[in-house]
Each structure stands twice: as structure tokens, then as C-alpha cells.
Amino acid sequence: QKLKPLAKQGNANSQVKLGIMYKHGRGVKQNYSEALRLFKLSAEQGNAEAMLNIGFIYKFGMDVAKDEKEAVRWFRLAEERGFLEAQGQLGWMFEKGPAIKRNLVQAYKWYYISLIGGRDSTTSLNIVGAVMTPAERTEAKRLAKEWMEKHR
Q1: Which residues, at least 6 apart from 49, have a Cβ–Cβ distance to it below 8 Å?
Q2: Alpha-carbon distance 89 to 133, whole Å?
Q3: 24, 13, 16, 83: which is closest to 48 by C-alpha?
Q4: How far is the C-alpha of 72 from the C-alpha of 76, rounded, in Å?
Q5: How far does the chain reach from its first CA to its final CA, in angstroms?
Q6: pLDDT, tens digit, for every residue of 39-49?
Q7: Nearest Cα to 53, choosing from 5, 12, 94?
Q8: Phi and psi torsions of 27, nearest 5°
Q9: Is 66 helix (H, G, I), strand (E, B) or coil?
Q10: Which positions ≥6 away from 38 have C-beta within 8 Å?
């Protein structure tokens, strides 16, 4: 295993890859605490994939107290770095609540951004869009385009 020495040396990509192995128990004994430790080391170096994984650990309460507000915080950090899966997760959190106030316009916005960015969010977009008014969908698309102009 080349990942362990590289992760120990502070290589952010190796830390996140090794963290994923621990999170899923692939090639190592599953250990959420070790995964979280590695993800945090990588996230400190700005790794968006690590931030996303920290969000999942808090979202599902993997060896930590389930904390959806903390999950949202980490998804936002990953999203700010353009990580498409984090944008989709924010859409989900706005769609479902309760960590953040349910807001279908925001949910649609994040699903739309994720879709335009290349991630298949069509099903989620259609489900949310089906219960929105045309004006709400128009507003969500306007917000998404505004966000994309700022962040591209």
C-alpha cells in the first residue's frame, strides 16, 4: 500500500483516498473515525472531495452524532470549490430539510447547477419541479444562472 506512507507525509489526495477506503472498509477494516481524521487532514489543505465525505459522515452519523447542520456546512465548503456532488447534496438538504429550512426554490437551484455542471440530477430536478409553480422554477433558474456567472 502506497497510500498510507503518502497520506502520512501529508499528501491530500492520498489522505482522501485512504479515508474513503476506511469509510467503506475496502482493503482495510472499516473505521469511520480514521476516515474522518484523514478527511479532515485533507480538507485542511482545501480538498473538496474530503469536505464532501466529512459532510456524509455527519449526515449519516457514522461514528459521530448525526448532525445535518454540520453536514450542510461541509457540503457548502465543498460546493464553494465547485464539487458537483456537493451541489446535489445541498439540493437534497433543501428539498428534504430538516437541517436547513425546506426551500424548494433553493433545492431546484442546486439541482439545476449540478445538472448544468454535468452531474445527472434530472430525476431530482423533475421531482422538485413538479410541485413548484412556474414562477418558482423561473426564480430558481435565475438564481442558478446568477450563481454560475459568479462562480465560473
Answers
A1: 16, 42, 78, 83
A2: 23
A3: 83
A4: 6
A5: 37
A6: 999 999 999 99
A7: 12
A8: 80, -10
A9: coil
A10: 7, 15, 16, 18, 19, 22, 50
Give Cα separations from 15 to 10, 72, 79, 85, 139 (angstroms). 7, 22, 20, 19, 40
The whole-angstrom separation of Cα 85 and Cα 116 is: 12
Residues near 40 by beta carbon (within 8 Å), at least 6 away in sequence: 50, 54
Cell of 80: 464553494
pTM > 0.90: no
Do 128 and 137 touch, CB atoms closer than 8 A?
no
CB 44 within 8 A of CB 10: no
Confidence of residue 118 (pLDDT cuts 50, 70, 90): confident
- Give the chain's length: 152
**pLDDT of 71-80, one tens digit each?**
999 999 999 8
